[in-house]
From TrEMBL:
Alphabetic keyword roster: Heme, Iron, Metal-binding, Monooxygenase, Oxidoreductase
Protein name per UniProt: Cytochrome P450
Gene Ontology terms, MF aspect: heme binding; iron ion binding; monooxygenase activity; oxidoreductase activity, acting on paired donors, with incorporation or reduction of molecular oxygen
Keyword Nucleotidyltransferase: no
InterPro entries: Cyt_P450, Cyt_P450_B, Cyt_P450_CS, Cyt_P450_sf
Matching PROSITE patterns: CYTOCHROME_P450
SUPFAM superfamilies: Cytochrome P450 (SSF48264)
Family: Belongs to the cytochrome P450 family.
Pfam families: p450 (PF00067)
Length: 379
């Protein structure tokens, strides 16, 4: 498609038409194009449309907002994800990582031949970090995993999506009430305070913000860690290069982000007027998917793009998006990836796959590019 039809309309399995943008230059430009909108609830619905509680709260987070609402909402949480603030989280990320690796080592010592790296490490690391940052009980993390999977799945029953959304809605309502009664030093308490001080944040936006931060705060990083380990184990020359020189880790994380693409595409955008992208005129009121995974493998931008090279200069990849919706959590994801890969490779020098790579299953999601399981042997 990059070569023959870089901007092409397709019909998705559920019958809706979207336009796929697949070439790097076009994807990058489209992600920053103000004529591609996000606020479907405010711009595509009829004046008499009344959202129900669940749809209403799901529809007002950052990824479904346009300026000026997007600008206002992003400003409220941006300070929690600055490079300086995230750097201060490194000791805690390292401690959580060490605890998880200790538990894996204990399971191996007790006679377990293989472990699922996602269950044991790639999921609990980022979800524990985001739970602690937000002020969400870490003990509830398995609930979030179940809810999150239902929300991003493409093949699920619509009822499952709704049930998961409803459960999260009521969960966060109760949590916000608890934080109002007993504030703590966490982001939820800070957002509740901003809401109650009249700082341009209504109750629906508060709930939606928590939903987005929790889901986005662990889904993609889980996939970066798991898919990144799979990529390294199936490219042993690159794995050995990284083992031999861990100063390559920061750059290797960028290359792994480019290569494994934790998201298949950016979140949905739509036109309100005809918009030309890559020489193709997309009509008004059409949905557009910017296929970042394709852009990151575009040989016109990254020579020999389908090859993993941990020493590649991978800057400019679009794994975190581009433009005003560039991922707020990018500094945290980078930190978690760097710590996770470094510690895992150091602790388990004989790490290997416990199943053929060809038998591994990918989650049934248009948006999420992630494995269902990753069985590995530690020695």
């Amino acid at each position: 498609m990059r070569e023959e039809g870089p901007v092409t309309s397709v019909v998705l399995p559920h019958g809706d038409r979207v336009w796929l943008v697949t070439r790097y230059a076009d994807v990058r430009a489209a992600l920053a194009d103000p004529r591609l909108y996000k606020d479907w609830a405010g711009k595509l619905t009829s004046p008499d449309w009344v959202p129900d509680a669940v749809t209403g709260y799901l529809s007002v987070h950052l990824l479904n907002a346009d300026p000026p609402d997007h600008t206002r909402l992003r400003k409220l949480v941006a300070k929690a994800f600055t490079a300086r603030r995230v750097a201060g989280l490194r000791p805690r990320v390292e401690a959580i990582t060490a605890e998880l690796l200790d538990a894996m080592e204990a399971r191996f010592a007790a006679g377990e031949d293989a472990v699922d790296l996602i269950e044991a490490f790639a999921f609990p690391l980022p979800v524990t970090v985001i739970c602690e940052l937000l002020g969400v009980p870490v003990g509830d993390r398995d609930k979030f995993r179940e809810w999150s999977h239902a929300i991003v799945a493409s093949d699920g029953d619509p009822g499952s999506f709704r049930a998961a959304g409803t459960a999260m809605f009521y969960y966060f309502n109760e949590l916000v009430a608890a934080k109002r009664a007993h504030p703590a030093d966490d982001m939820i308490s800070a957002l509740v305070e901003a809401r109650d001080a009249g700082d341009s944040l209504n109750e629906r936006e508060l709930i939606a913000m928590l939903f987005l931060l929790l889901v986005a705060g662990h889904e993609t990083t889980t996939n970066l860690i798991a898919s990144g380990v799979l990529a390294l184990l199936t490219h042993p020359d690159q794995l050995e290069r990284l083992r031999a020189d861990q100063s390559l880790l920061p750059g290797a994380v960028e290359e792994l982000l480019r290569f494994v693409n934790p998201l298949n595409h950016a979140t949905d955008r739509f036109t309100l007027e005809p918009v030309e992208i890559g020489g193709v005129l997309i009509p008004a009121r059409e949905w557009v998917l910017c296929v970042t995974s394709s852009a990151n493998l575009d040989p016109g931008r990254f020579p020999d793009a389908e090859r993993l090279e941990v020493e590649r200069e991978a800057g400019g990849h679009l794994a975190f998006g581009h433009g005003i919706h560039y991922c707020l959590g990018a500094p945290l994801a980078r930190l978690e990836g760097e710590v996770a890969f470094g510690a895992l490779l150091s602790r388990f020098p004989s790490l290997s796959l416990a199943a053929s790579a060809s038998t591994l299953r990918w989650r049934p999601s248009s948006l999420i590019h992630g494995l269902e399981t990753l069985p590995v042997r530690l020695a």
